[in-house]
Design a protein that fits this description.
Elements: H1 2-23, H2 33-57, H3 61-84
Helix pairs in contact: 1-2, 2-3
């Protein structure tokens, strides 16, 4: 149940960013990497965070530390994927 709750929390936190990436892309195009990469990373991060809290409550420090390390790795992967995607494209307004 803890992992399921963490997965749902990851989806809820991903939803505003995912909606912006899928529907409001540059010149009306969708960025499917938000769905292919971002959603799984957020689900796994939510599961790891929920399990870290669960293990901290049970005072299982080693497993909690492992979950925190997993969160750090997932964060690093997210930053790396975002950096490899390149600079964000500028918004195009009236005097384009």
């Amino acid at each position: 149940m803890t992992a399921f709750a963490g997965a749902l929390a990851g989806i809820v936190l991903w939803a505003p960013h995912g909606k912006g990436g899928l529907l409001d892309g540059f010149e009306g195009t969708s960025n499917w990497n938000v769905l292919r990469v971002g959603l799984p990373l957020m689900i796994l991060g939510g599961i790891a965070a929920a399990l870290a809290v669960f293990f901290l409550v049970r005072r299982d420090w080693k497993r909690a530390l492992g979950c925190v390390a997993a969160i750090g790795v997932l964060f690093a992967l997210g930053v790396a994927v975002d950096a490899l995607a390149g600079a964000p494209r500028p918004e195009c307004y009236d005097p384009c």
